[in-house]
Amino acid sequence: MYQILIRNGTVIDPANNIHDVLDLAIDGGKISAVDFDIDAEAVNEIDASGCIVVPGLIDHHAHVWPLAKIGIPAESVCFSSGVTTVVDAGSTGAMTFRQHKDFISKSKLTVKAYINVCSTGLDSLPHEMEDVDPSHYDEGAIRELFEEEGANLLGLKLRTSKEVVKDMGYEPLRQTVRLAEKLGLSVMVHCTNPPAEMSELLSCLRPGDVITHMYMNKGSTILDKLGHVSKAAIEARERGVIFEAADARAHFGFNVAERAIREGFFPDILATDITKLSVYLRPTAFSMASQLAKYSMLGIPEDELFRLCTINPARHMKIDAGTLSVGSAADVAVFRREEFAQQFGDRPYSDETAQLRFGEYIYRPLMTVKNGEVVFRDIAF
Fold first, then answer.
1. What range defines the domain where residue 154 resides?
2. pTM over 0.90
3. Whole-angstrom distance, CA of residue 173 vs CA of residue 19
């Protein structure tokens, strides 16, 4: 007898190229079987007819309380959106990460983190920007932190907006990449309103480095002067730079996203960048489930959509997640694609520059399973 048996759902597992109506059995915290008409009983048997069954989603870019003062209550927000793994994208630095070790180890949600090059991370927000002066980088403390806590850490994070780097231009980015190269780490760089041309930013990045907010429309963008995806962006992807869409309240523009997607320049990773300031805020990022609906409306095919927030980030992170392979951790999400008139925006309603679009469907989260335990279930499912 299995612990959980999900029957009759449309299983979409991009890691194994599966898209079919199947049953999925869970026992001992692992995926036990994925097959047609499994002849067995279970303690918890669920009819998922008309629903989509996918690997638990990975939100590769959020800000999590208590790592960030403006962080989300991670388990409640993530589990109710089908997310079983979340990445805190640079809320803490080498001086502030350790105080949150207990939170990370005790959370049922898998939590990983990028470490900000600023020693105190984003603790100074919202009153003042973080200190990214390269002369203040504490290489020794960063090295020591990764040696001690590397299993929970993914790399270095830098925000390279004009508002943050001020008159230093791309020098903080160049020095961050230099430090990452020295320590054998990858870099995630926030690119909204960059201090110079996007092509120069992209030229600094190496294979495995992540440029987040790829569809932002403030300052120089991934589009060239003719409105096409730039040669610099195409070449960066070809050499292995990872492009992430993480939209938050204002790190996205329809004028960039629609043109890039029409040309087939999809994200490699789909995330949210939600904080307590943007979670559940219409018409912007809202949640991972809302991101799925928005990018489906923008034209990304369903199988590819789930690839961007399951196996793609899992492979980048080098973790056992993002798949429904037999024997893998039983992280599972169930959604139903429902007709629902939904409005999407690239800025909050309060911003007069906001552009709005309308969708006809949502992905409604119905159930989330983490390591074989049901951690969220819609009362009507």
1. 56-317
2. yes
3. 41
